[in-house]
Amino acid sequence: MVLRRKDKHRYLLLYVNDEIFNEIVTHFEMGNKDLRKSITILRKRFSELFGTIELEKASINIVFENNIGPPNFLILKCKLASMDNILCAIALSYPPLTTIKISGTIKKLTSSIAIEKHVEYV
Amino acid sequence: MIGTDNSIENYKETAQIQGINDAFVLRFKSKPKKLPLFKYIVVLHESESKINSKIPFFDIFSMNNWNTYKINLKQLKKLNRKNIGIEIKIREIRNCNSYEVGKWVKSIKEINKFCKLTDNQLIISSGAETNYETISGNTFDSLLRIFDIEPIKYWNELEKWIDTKSRVYYGTS
């Protein structure tokens, strides 16, 4: 018998400054799928603080919403087990990022800010 | 919990409203001419003056350099005052490189030990000056766990400390 248990994950709603948000939008409009560059700040800080192995375990991904209602919002997906480390890395990253909400589903996450559901994982 | 304000203009507006909401913290860089109508706490920044016996009364000592924390702790020990809040702003740590962040974590652990031994209170604040720099409660808890501080215990102690300070300064009008 094979155990097929998935790791639990969480979605984070981040509030970012104009500089970071514009960079993400530009990347998407140009058809550049390498949006990982946009969260370099977070990944870099995370690997500096907790190491590259922990970074891979955390599997931080950006979830790009096609029709974002309110500007300056960003959604990240990550493993629940690494939540403490990720929140620390977010709090200690520069330029600043702010965690607004944490949820297990995108539906709950976006319910308060009315974001349409065109989700694309990168 | 933490709000920001650098302007005196806002203070003039809010000062007219009695019984201002306790959920906000306004920071003034300069001393207002009139005493505020709401509770206030005096903050001394590390860069402003050296700690000695002639130093006037203050509630919070704000540290902004991990290099000098040992000297500051020695001076605070000599001062022999209780119930002082030792504040560390995440904003200061955010601008540092990873090496310095590590040093900060170590120094916060030692400052926390010092505070427990001398009946003082460690205060970790966002130090936010813009909306983007604010830090959520969950994130604070994660940071506290990284600093080897139990979040529930920390928040309870901080609440007690704020209560004791509120009694002293309430009703200055």
Explain what you see:
With 122 residues, chain A is α+β, with helices and mostly antiparallel strands. Chain A contains five helices and five strands. Chain A has helices spanning 18-29, 40-50, 52-58, 83-91, 106-111; strands at residues 9-16, 61-65, 73-79, 97-103, 119-121. In chain A, strands 4-1-3-2-5 form a five-stranded antiparallel beta sheet. The N and C termini of chain A lie far apart (33 Å). Mean pLDDT of chain A is 77; it is low at 116-122. Chain B has a four-stranded parallel beta sheet. Chain B has one domain: TIM Barrel, CATH 3.20.20.140. By secondary structure, chain B is of the alpha/beta class. The interface between A and B is medium-sized, with 23 and 21 residues.
Give a quick precis of the structure:
Chain A has five helices and five strands. Chain A is α+β, with helices and mostly antiparallel strands and 122 residues long. Chain A has one domain.
The most extensive interface between chains reads: A-B, 23 and 21 residues
Work out the number of β strands of chain A.
5
Going by helix content, strand content and strand pairing, the class of chain A is alpha+beta
Largest sheet of chain A: 5 strands, antiparallel
Q: What top-tier CATH class of chain B fits best?
A: Alpha Beta
CATH superfamily of chain B: Metal-dependent hydrolases
Tally of distinct domains of chain A: 1
**Count of helical stretches of chain A:** 5
Largest sheet of chain B: 4 strands, parallel
Strands ordered across the widest β-sheet of chain B = 1-2-3-4
Low-pLDDT residue spans of chain B: 1-8, 15-20
